[in-house]
Amino acid sequence: MDSSKVMILSDFDRTLAPEENGFIIEDYVVKEINSYSEFNLFFVVTGRERKNVSGVKRKSVFELSNGLVPTGWILENGSMILYRGEHIMVSKQWLQDMDEISRRFSQEGIDHALGETIMFADNTLDKRELLEKIVKDVSQGRGKVEWNTDDAMVMASNVDKGRGIRDLVDMMQFKGIKVGIGDAQNDIPLFQNVDVKVAMGNALPEIKKMADIVMKGGPGEGVLEVLDMIREGRLLDIVKQHYI
């Protein structure tokens, strides 16, 4: 397979970066992906923010990526693309909604953090009903909540990882094969917008069920297995079944 005609779109948390390592990518994984990205397309597609604006301090994706230099980034769950410039996909009204939602969360004692276009409320699954009600009441349909295991991401209703991928593909006028790699609920829109779906060995059961391939390896290791499959042409049979 000509790897120059393949676009890899990989999630970050628990796909590239192991939770037990504080979501920092291992050095050897960074080295392999940087080498691959010199001549091939590798994009990180993540809910993580470029920078923490306010609230509970979270490390940004760049603080955790350990020198990773992919072709580009789709950040904040599809709200922002960094590829040959900066592209923001949310309205000014949504940014105002975020401020009011943040105020209401604080009133209710819901710890949270703000990125530039997205909000995070980690470990809040037990407060799901209240959290989703606040978002609905304030945004009047302009916002939504997506869950990543027990963590809530509050974002504009018209964005997700799939939207980010579609906009990127249009921007690049890419006509090749899209390979998506993920592990959790917010990767479902990612999977719905690629040609070959790859689940990590540590992925949730519903993600493994959707996948065309389930890797043996977990975070980082599984992604490197995918790179080997592409280099060695072993991905071709999967592509024939799902793309050609």
UniProtKB/TrEMBL annotation:
Keywords: Hydrolase. SUPFAM superfamilies: HAD-like. One of its GO terms (molecular function) is magnesium ion binding. GO terms for cellular component: cytosol. The keyword Lipid metabolism does not apply. Transmembrane segments: none annotated. The keyword Hydrolase applies. This is HAD-IIB family hydrolase. It comes from Sulfuracidifex metallicus DSM 6482 = JCM 9184.
